[in-house]
Amino acid sequence: MKLTIPLFPLPNVVLFPKTLRPLHIFEPRYRALVSEAIRTDSLVGMVLLKDGWEEQYDKFPPIEKTGCVGRIIQSNRLSDGRYYITLLGLSSFTIEQELEPSVFRKAEVTLNETFAENPLSSVEFDRLSQSLEETLSLLDLNRELSWIRDSTLDPEALVHHWSAFLPFSPEERQFLLESPTLKSQAGRLFDLLLFKRSEYDETQQTGNSESSTIEPYL
Hints:
Layout: E1 2-10, E2 20-25, H1 28-39, E3 43-48, E4 66-77, E5 83-98, E6 106-111, H2 122-138, H3 142-150, H4 155-165, H5 170-177, H6 182-206
Parallel strand pairs: 1-3
Antiparallel strand pairs: 1-6, 2-5, 3-4, 4-5, 5-6
Helix pairs in contact: 2-3, 2-6, 4-6, 5-6
């Protein structure tokens, strides 16, 4: 399915389907984007800015080709024109072409409608869950571990939530978002968890705490 949607590029935010993302909208061009979206279909395409975006941020810096379309499910417009909104992630997409920019960027995108056609088996999901629990326990992330154990979300939603809210860098999250299927995203997530554990083990052996620093989700 193809859509034409406004693009909201940010340097540290990767939206995933079936997850919620609160945002504070303060730049004039993105206030205009949100205002137009609310008047129409409430859809916004979140995309990650590529490295080197700082010098061109006020213009049109390079962006990743894969993003996630979200629907504005809650909005609060302040007296000075700023917005507080909440996005619900709907589907990953691939940018086919950007349109001639005006106040903000727009693009024709193709949604990834085959993502869930190759579901996880119970064995694969249990293996991923076990690796996740072991990694979180090792990194002393008890709050996240408690949330995962208590969650009643379905496997697809859980894989998206783990991808979005575990302590990965924006680049690692982008790698997960670009997965063509649920099974491939789960596999990439599993590999990242193994990497975090090996990184932790190496840090413990060398005594270098800085090497284990993981960028938080912002």
